[in-house]
Amino acid sequence: MPKPVIEDAIVEEYPRVRPARQILPALFRRRSPQRREREQIEYIPVHDGQEPETQSGRKPPLRLLGFLLLVILPFLACSVYYAFIASDQYVAEARFAVRAVSGADGNSDGSDPSGGAGASGVLNMRSASQDAYVVTSFIHSTEILKRIGANLDYKSMFARGDADFLSRFRASESDEEFLKYWNDHVSAYIDVSSGIITLKVRTFTPDDSVKLADAIIQESEKLINELSTRARNDIVQSMKADVEKSGKAYGDTLIALNQFQHASGLLSPQTQAKDSGTLLTGLLAQKLEFETRLFVMRQSNAESSPTFQQLNLAKESLDAQIDKMKTELTGPENESLAKSLLEYSRLDTDRLIAEKLYESSQKNYDAVLAEALRKTLYLAVFVNPTLPDEAIFPRRVSTPLIILLALTVAWATLSLIWASVQDHRI
């Protein structure tokens, strides 16, 4: 049976009307011919003799309401705040660097390699980058607040009654909250290549900005001096402890050597052994002479002569002396001069080693003390904080425009997400 002509006429007279929320997703949706025909039949409006509702009689679109609520109203509120309410904030800027000064030494003997005079008195300045990071960390810590608070009421600078309610700090908040507020209004960053620290302080009056910046620089300089003094004292105390330790060891060896001399009765066993050896050699020479003379007299049959008897008695006396000397030199282990000489050599070697260590530690201590006195850290301020002529913050034009851009992007993103959700429901 053919299709009714009336149906085609109705479709031509009333074109298909899609809901507004499906327009954007339909741009990205492909439809088959059968579905397109089915939708045409499905969306044919029923004509009941009344005129269709005009565009002016409809409710405002949901997107327009969302744009007004999420973009226009917040932008107007921000514009009013930054134009009429926000308080002026003044920035005081200072620049400084942490420098280390030390004596530039030449060779180990203190002479210049180029042949000139000693360079130990020439000052060598270098950047102390690690100490610069210590200073910036100190500026953003609670320690500097404690130190500044002893001489300056810094909280009153940020809790002024003439400042607007959003910018000023409320005195009822905790110290942790104030540290966050402090880090928002006081910044210190380092130029990595040069090691220069840039300090910026933002308050509600020019005088407060300069006063607070000066206080921060003073406390940072005190911190650097403390670090320099502490490092110097630590190194000096360490070397001094080594000197005292080696000196005590050297004194102990001297006491042990003195006790040995008193116990053995020998001032120097080496000298005693040398003298005993010389004496023993002389006695052996005399004994050899007496034996020679006695041999000659025996060959001459003069054994009964008084001279022979005297020579024989002298030889026996020499033999007794020689035996006694040998006993003193190499006798029993606990009584021999050799044992005393060995013990003395050990004690004297300990004394010599302790003496060398003490001299070396004393020399190192003197060198470290001289270097510590020459080497120091200091804060070099080359841009002092000055009174600002005009308020840099708040940025009354650029900040509302940036907020408007951010709100518009957020609204567009939410609109796309909402349209995608509605498209998946169909």
TrEMBL record:
GO terms for cellular component: plasma membrane. The chain crosses the membrane at residues 64-84, 401-421. InterPro entries: Bact_polysacc_biosynth/exp. The keyword Transmembrane helix applies. Keywords: Membrane, Transmembrane, Transmembrane helix. GO terms for molecular function: protein tyrosine kinase activity. Signal peptide: none annotated. PANTHER family: FERRIC ENTEROBACTIN TRANSPORT PROTEIN FEPE, TYROSINE-PROTEIN KINASE. This is Capsular polysaccharide transport system permease protein. It comes from Rhizobium lusitanum.
